[in-house]
Amino acid sequence: MNDIRAITIFVRTATLGSLRRAAIDQGISPQAASQSVIQLEKSLGVRLFHRTTRKLSLTEEGQRLFDSVKPALAILSSSLDEARRSKEEVNGILRINAPRSLGLSVLWQFFELFQQHNPKVQLDIQLDDQFTDLVSGRADVGFRGGPPPSAGAIARRLMPIQLIVCASPDYIQRHGAPQTIDELSQHSCTGYRWANTGKVAQWQFQIGDEIVHRDIPAVICVNDTAMETQAVLSGLGIGQLGSFEAMPHIRSGRLVPLLMQHVSECGAIYIYYGHRAEQSLRVRTFIDFMIGKLADNRAFFLDRSELAASVPLLKARPHAQIGGAGRQR
Predict the structure, then answer these.
(1) Containing domain of residue 182, as a range?
(2) What CATH number is attached to the domain comprising 175?
(3) In this structure, are residues 253 and 314 in contact, taking their beta carbons and an 8 Å threshold?
(4) Between 171 and which of 1, 167, 201, 293 could a Cys-Cys bridge form, CB atoms 3.0 to 4.6 Å apart?
């Protein structure tokens, strides 16, 4: 027996004073309503109604049950109505999980823009460099860089992550620019230390059809991609940066891309989420918004024509058209 259904019929019968009226109210037959009340009485082991051919009234036990369950049933009904409305209104809490390296450099501006368009949505953002599945992270939507998320979520590829060797114009003016990979050993370079292993990341290069890795000595080594980018911007050395960090600075002229014939890819940026049938309107709206802003947005990666040209991309496009990709270490 469906207890909630039976209690609902019981409360409506007591409120309306008639099984027939309660049946009409619930869209069922009078026989089904009567059977539901009888089954509830059997389940509880008490009689809930005094019945005559002309009159229906609550017993003492029925009155106590009615008085106790009616407020709770009203709260339940209100909660169910609110849940149904969430499928029709863009409001409520939206929980998002993303790596720190993507948070400010790529995603924040679009989070801000989304909330400007949807002020009734409260964003709850968790930045975590370790991949978090939606269930354990209690998230509605996640972002990550690298390989696609494992099974259990729908993943949409937004853009490639490329590794780009960069230097500031000031550094190049003072020290010149390397023309080959081997010449990097003659320059000051930055390094990235993996937070989970403590090892310094190798630099990765595309040479012909192969990907090769090199250990590049670093004059400064950090475990944060934004800080490494800042070190390169400050002219402390040449760095190999993820395109989602580097490209806004390349397009504005604050960084110069080097060794472009050796730019390599190390995965992509993905948005991932649960099945659409389970999503509220606010989640679907957010996913569609972010895909519209980020999918194949060239402000944060080099397209094939730019790679083929192998020339500096100073001020190629206005900075206002932002979207993202880059190294997810």
Answers:
(1) 161-266
(2) 3.40.190.10
(3) yes
(4) 167
pLDDT lower than 50: segments of the chain: 1, 311-329
Give the span between the Cα atoms of 65 and 215, in whole angstroms: 75
pLDDT at position 323 is 31
Residue given tokens 């083929």 in the structure block: 308
Q: Are residues 225 and 204 in the same domain?
A: yes
What pLDDT score was predicted for residue 180?
Answer: 95
Q: Could you tell me the two tokens for 138?
A: 């209690």
Residues 6+ apart with CB under 8 A from 321: 297, 298, 299
Per DSSP bridges, beta strands 121-127 and 141-146 are: unpaired
Q: What CA dihedral angle connects 270, 256, 209 and 202, to 10 degrees?
A: -70
3 state SS of 299:
helix
Please give the structure tokens belonging to residue 315.
């001020």
* H-type alpha helices, 27-107: 30-44, 60-86, 100-102
What is the Cα–Cα distance from 326 to 161, expressed in whole angstroms?
A: 4
Q: What is the spatial distance between Cα 214 and Cα 228, in angstroms, rounded to a whole number?
A: 18
Tell me how many domains the chain contains.
3
Nearest to 158, CA basis, from 174, 173, 142? 142
CB burial of residue 186 (10 Å; 0-12, 13-18, 19+): exposed
Residue among 130, 127, 131 at smallest CA distance from 103: 127
Tokens 């059997």: give the residue.
Answer: 42
Taken in order 10, 11, 14, 19, the sign of the CA dihedral is negative
Max CA-CA distance within the chain? 103
Q: What is the DSSP-derived secondary structure letter of residue 238? A: B
Can you give the pTM of this predicted structure? 0.67
Q: What tokens appear for 18 in the block?
A: 């008639």
